Amino acid sequence: MVLVFGLTLPVATPVLADTTGPKFPTNYAIGTTGFAPDSPARALVDDVAIGDADSTKCAEFRQSGGNSEIYYGFGFGIPSGATIDGLEVVVSGFNDIHADDPLTFSIGLSGDTGGSWTDYRETPTLGVTDDNYILGGSTDLWGKAWNAGNFSDGNFRLEVAANRTGHGDIVCLDSVSVIVYYHGGVNAPTITSIIANQGTQGQTQQIIITGTNLTDATAVSFGAGITINSFTVNSAVQITASITIDASAVAGARDISVTTPGGTATLTGGFIVVHQNQATGTGAPTSHGGSSVSGPSSPAPPVSLPNIQIQSAGISAAVVTPDTPITVTASISNRSTVNGNKKVTVYVNGQVETSQGVMVNSGDSSELTFNVSRSEPGEYTVYVDGVPAGSFKVEFLRESDGILIFSVTMLAIAFLIGMVMLWRRQCSG
């Protein structure tokens, strides 16, 4: 709300958009024309420098042959329920033969494994050296209604076609990448490990579940015969659960599941129920002088578990130039009565960047640092496990910035020279 001339007016809250960043394919198949280019695998890697023309590093499409190729396996990782705002395709390539021919690529997109395609978009006329050609944008849906499921590796396809023009001319595809713009949605949870992953019939104990995207968990299940007394979501990567194993629970391995608004994650065979006789030894008679007696029964000891958490995280800079590293810092503490180890993971735009193990003694704190850099311009959001560290932008140094820096430097040098000359004059006087 804002106050204008004594009136309170509502202010619309902007929708915060997110982006996958540039994603490159990992696989390919022959296109719809049935005529494949030479060396299509070369287009999986962007390795021709802008302004260069190395045809040994690109997929070669023949214009007169109507060559086409389908690329997929982009690994977008768009959260379930997200609203898709736009798609941007970056085609990197060049005209390898005749500079005077208007040679182009066409791009089509599919969200159902090639069952249907968008209208194809044509690049501008290709130059004779490598360059990037952008199709679409942050609000361009290519004439189609999309959902997050369309961008799974099983569904999304991109076709590159050489237009039927020229006389056998070759156009080189260095690479093709896609950026998806979206907002909202919830990432699907995962379970990676269980601390204290077994228990005895009749026992009550605490279990720690680790994974990703566990925030707002609504249910935890250990299967039939195990009651969930309570559970606490410690962070996006950890849940602590109190469970009671029925005395009649079936012994053996069972699955563990966690349900969040983003879906249900299951760890197959993640917990083992141990038979009470096996745990206490009461069911295995021992021989003493020819008679059989049962060993004494004793309750299972209480389980003490480490409770290591990320207290805070931050980054060293908000704006950097390409390939300039920033430092990610994480403060970690162990609030339990036992020493423990923890694997700390840094995520950039939802993707795993790097991990580091740390041991923290009971009651102690520690600090970890990581270096992160990006070569592509854009905005990048950093998390340490489930704790936000901040966002940084990668921007090219503008010419005006360089001129300003040079001007300020020259003024500083001139000022220092002037101060030295004034000092020398005063001294000589």
List keywords for this structure.
five-stranded antiparallel beta sheet; mainly beta
Q: What's the gist of this structure?
A:
By secondary structure, this protein is mainly β.
Unreliable stretches covering 5 or more consecutive residues = 11-16, 279-300
Topology, number of strands: 30
Rg to the nearest angstrom?
A: 30 Å
Instruction: Describe the main β-sheet briefly.
Output: 5 strands, antiparallel
Round the mean pLDDT to the nearest integer and report it: 83
Shape estimate: flat
Structural class, please?
mainly beta
Fold and architecture overview:
With 429 residues, this protein is mainly beta. It is 8% helix and 45% strand. The protein is built from two helices and 30 strands. Strands 3, 5, 7, 10 and 12 form a five-stranded antiparallel sheet that branches. A five-stranded antiparallel sheet has the order 4-6-11-8-9, with no helix packed on it. A five-stranded mixed sheet has the order 24-30-29-26-27, with no helix packed on it. A hairpin with a 2-residue loop joins strand 29 and strand 30 (387-394). It starts with a strand and ends with a helix. Mean pLDDT is 83; it is low at 11-16 and 279-300.
